[in-house]
Amino acid sequence: MSLHPILIAGQWRPAQSTGSFHSENPATGEPISGEYPISAWADCDAALTAATAAAVALRTTAPEKIAHFLTRFAERMEARKAELVDLAHAESGLPKAPRLGDVEFPRTTGQLRQGAAAVLEGSWALPTIDAKLNIRSTLAAIGPVWVFGPNNFPFAFNSVAGGDFVAAIAAGNPVIAKANSSHPGVTRVLAEEAFAAVGEAGLHPATVQLIYRTGHADGERLVSDVRTGATGYTGSRHAGLKLKAAADATGKPIYLELSSVNPVVILPGALAERGVKLAEEFAGSALMGSGQFCTSPSLIVLIAGDAAEQFIQTAAARLQAAPVAPLLSSAVARSLAASVQTLTSAGAQVVTGGTPVAAPGCRFNNTLLRVSGAEFLAAPAKLQTEAFGNASLVVTVRDAAQAAEVLTHLEGNLTACVYSDTAGSDDALYAKLEPLLRERCGRLLNDKMPTGVAVSAAMNHGGPYPSTGHPGFTAVGIPAALRRFGVLQCYDNVRATRLPAALRDKNPNGKMWRLIDGAWTQRDVGA
Fold it and tell me: Could you list the active site residues?
């Protein structure tokens, strides 16, 4: 059986393969036609060599060309939307509508267009000028970027077209995409359209490259290679930390999104005021995408009492009544079962679910577990095991003091949320608990489940370890996301004609915000 080609140095060519794989339809468990190669190091080496040449070319490429590429890519994606949505549905089991076609696909093309706007405007690079001392600095492209896409967003976080891809390209870097094994077909089609858009925009042909899979040792080697500028990775904590160790050993930046249980604290006043409604809201959020969101509410903290018991009963009833949607793959199903086993072995009791579905496909019964505050404090690490999928854990604490103690044992998370009553009776308790949550999450929410991640300039989709590898950066939100793939360059007494356009006295487009002598302005220097 022939293998799909990889995209290297401007050509679709056969891989230097060490094996092959295929994707599966998680709704049926059946394989999807098409074999994809597992690349040997020779492919990675060739991609890095080509990307190095592309990085040099991109340094002198006009922003308008990069913006044109991003825009044309979005347009070309839209021309193949029906095909892409069908393929993503087959490879992920996610519904075509509204999830894939009405939500994730337009979000992805929107990100591409936001990236194009950021390129043209230019302020993302934080150009800074000290006119008196004639010292000037700006962020510039860091070099070839590897992007490892996750399994749960076949479009919006895809290694070709997703947020990391957009940020790296918009910052002026070539991308070498490593497809996720769950949706190689979607990634292949996206790469076809990206490569066509590269040609239309007149960019270096190696601006976008694609391989499907590598061995673990080669993965560690490529993120640490001297030619690599940086890496963006979304996936499991275990694999991500191995890549991080390799990259750290050679000083290569790597931006990781790893795992998060996203604690939700529901205070007594809120439970008394609208507990049934909140239980229904939680169940809907926990089952969105079969719980396979990195911001799914997987840990709920309640103060014990009748209202807490009513919440648990209502949530369990909603989970039992809801259909069991397919998980993304058999590997996800196995991992979820193992995580639930870890939680129960640490003292958690199953309220509902807790077992795989005995039917074709990759399904696990909608699951709710519970544990007391004392039991949680006896094994906080194990009871924070991420159960990636449709499973959540409720912690019923004795009182406010034990709630605070539980929160002090939380790991870093992408999000944390507090629900409180509208009359203000929870305000004092909120003031006590909020600081504990605030230092343990990237995004703090009030009275709102964390599942959605808006593509907003103000968004932080990041957080303290182990939710990410670095708490100072976001994977969502333009222009901030671009800065992960920039390097700070300073020019001291450099002649005006030799400066980058963003650092010359005249504002290159009249729109760019620059920090000139301590003030943000769109004016020319001296104006």
Answer: 257, 294
